[in-house]
TrEMBL record:
GO terms for molecular function: phenylalanine-tRNA ligase activity. PROSITE patterns: AA_TRNA_LIGASE_II. Residues 1-24 are annotated as: Disordered. This is Phenylalanine--tRNA ligase alpha subunit. InterPro entries: aa-tRNA-synth_II (IPR006195), aa-tRNA-synth_II/BPL/LPL (IPR045864), Phe-tRNA-synth_IIc_asu (IPR004529), Phe-tRNA_ligase_II_N (IPR004188), Phe_tRNA_ligase_alpha1_bac (IPR022911), Phenylalanyl-tRNA_Synthase (IPR002319), tRNA-bd_arm (IPR010978). SUPFAM superfamilies: Class II aaRS and biotin synthetases, tRNA-binding arm. Pfam families: Phe_tRNA-synt_N, tRNA-synt_2d. Its EC number is 6.1.1.20. The keyword Glycoprotein does not apply. The gene is pheS. The lineage of its organism: Bacteria, Bacillati, Bacillota, Bacilli, Bacillales.
Length: 352
C-alpha cells in the first residue's frame, strides 16, 4: 500500500479539524473541505493518473482508507455535537411548573337564548311546531293581515323602523302567524310558536330596547275556547316561575285578538303578599293573549265559522329579567363579559 507523507498529513489535519468543529455547521464545513467534490481527498485522487497501473489500486485503496477515517471521525463528532445541542435545548426549555397557566375562557349560553330554549322545550312537549320568520317583513304581514290596516290608530303603539313604504323591521313575531295561516290554505289544525328578534323605534333605557325578543304562540283548530288558552298559559307560568304560581287575566286590547287579555302571574318572590319585584301588587304582568280575531282568520283563508283559535305573545327579555333579577334590558345586547360570565355560573350550578 502506498501511504504518502501527504496522505498522512491530510488525514491528521482533517481529524484535528473534525475534533475542533464546535457545532454542526462547522462540522459540515469540514466535511465539504475534505470530502466534497472539490475537497482535499478528491484532490489526492487526481494524482492517480501519474501512477503505474500496478500502483493505482494500492494508491486508491490508501486514499479510501483516509476517506473512511475522516468519514468515521465526522460521524462520531456529529453524534457528540447533536447530543450537546439536545442537552442545551433541554436545559433552556425546562418547564417551570410554578408559572401561572394561560386562562382558557369557556363560553355559555346567553341568558336570553337559554330562556327561549326553555320555552321552546315546553311547547315542543305540548306538540307545538317551532316556526321561524323574517326579521325584514312586508307591511302586509306585519300589520294588514293582522287586522291593522294602514289607517289603524294602533299602528302608533308600535313605532316602526321602515325600510321602504312597504318593507320594515318586524315589530312583533305575529307576521309568522299570518304567513303560516296563509300557507295552510284554510286547513287546521295549526299549533305553532314563533321565537325571534323584533324591532321598534324606542328610546333605549333600563326597560326599553329598540331590539328585543318575542315568542308568539298560535293555535287554530275547531272548538278552541278561551279556557284552552287559560289552561295553556297556566302551564307556562308554572313551568317558568314555579309550581305554586297562579295566573289572572285582565281585559285588554290588541287588534288581532278578540277578546284580548293581559296575563299576570302571582309574584314568585313574595308569593302574592307584595314586594319590590311585583311593586307591591302581588302580581307580575308576563304576556298578552286573546282569541284570534275572525278577520285575521278570514284574511288568511280560514272559515271563521268553523275554526277558532288563540294567540299569545311573550317577551323572553322580560321573563329572563324577572327570573334572574336583571335590572337593565340593555345588558342583554351590550355583550359585557362580566355580565354574561355570571350566567355561566348559573349553568354550572344547574339552576337553569
Ligand atoms: Zn312580590
Amino acid at each position: 500500500m502506498i501511504q504518502t507523507e501527504e496522505m498522512n498529513q491530510l488525514k491528521s489535519e482533517a481529524l484535528a479539524d473534525v475534533s475542533q468543529a464546535s457545532d454542526e455547521k462547522a462540522l459540515q464545513d469540514v466535511k465539504v473541505k475534505y470530502l466534497g467534490k472539490k475537497g482535499s481527498v478528491s484532490g489526492l485522487m487526481k494524482q492517480m493518473k501519474d501512477l503505474s497501473n500496478e500502483e493505482k489500486p494500492k494508491f486508491g485503496q490508501a486514499v479510501n482508507e483516509v476517506r473512511q477515517a475522516i468519514e468515521q471521525a465526522i460521524a462520531e463528532r456529529k453524534k457528540v455535537l447533536e447530543q450537546e445541542r439536545l442537552n442545551k435545548q433541554l436545559e433552556e426549555e425546562t418547564i417551570d411548573v410554578t408559572l401561572p397557566s394561560r386562562q382558557i375562557k369557556q363560553g355559555a349560553a346567553h341568558p336570553l337564548t337559554r330562556t327561549i330554549q326553555e320555552i321552546e322545550d315546553l311547547f315542543l312537549g305540548l306538540g307545538y311546531e317551532i316556526v321561524n320568520g323574517y326579521e325584514v317583513e312586508q307591511d302586509y304581514y306585519n300589520f294588514e293581515a293582522l287586522n291593522l290596516p294602514k289607517s289603524h290608530p294602533a299602528r302608533d303603539m308600535q313605532d316602526t323602523f321602515y325600510i321602504t313604504e312597504e318593507t320594515l323591521m318586524r315589530t312583533h313575531t305575529s307576521p309568522v302567524q299570518a304567513r303560516t295561516l296563509e300557507k295552510r290554505n284554510g286547513q287546521g289544525p295549526v299549533k305553532i310558536i314563533c321565537p325571534g328578534k323584533v324591532y321598534r323605534r324606542d328610546s333605549d333605557d333600563a326597560t326599553h330596547s329598540h331590539q328585543f325578543t318575542q315568542i308568539e304562540g298560535l293555535v287554530v283548530a275547531e272548538n278552541i275556547k278561551m279556557s284552552d288558552l287559560k289552561g295553556t298559559l297556566e302551564l307556562v307560568a308554572k313551568k317558568l316561575f314555579g309550581e305554586e304560581r297562579e295566573i289572572r287575566l285582565r281585559p285588554s286590547y290588541f287588534p288581532f285578538t278578540e277578546p284580548s287579555v293581559e296575563v299576570d302571574v302571582s309574584c314568585f318572590k313574595c308569593g302574592g303578599k307584595g314586594c319590590n319585584v311585583c311593586k307591591g301588587s302581588g302580581w307580575i304582568e308576563i304576556l298578552g293573549a286573546g282569541m284570534v280575531h275572525p278577520n285575521v282568520l278570514e284574511m288568511a283563508g280560514f272559515d271563521s265559522s268553523k275554526y277558532t283559535g288563540f294567540a299569545f305573545g311573550m317577551g323572553p327579555d322580560r321573563i329572563a329579567m324577572l327570573k334572574y333579577g336583571i335590572e337593565d334590558i340593555r345588558y342583554f345586547y351590550t355583550n359585557d363579559v362580566r355580565f354574561l360570565d355570571q350566567f355561566k355560573a348559573v349553568e354550572d350550578r344547574g339552576e337553569a
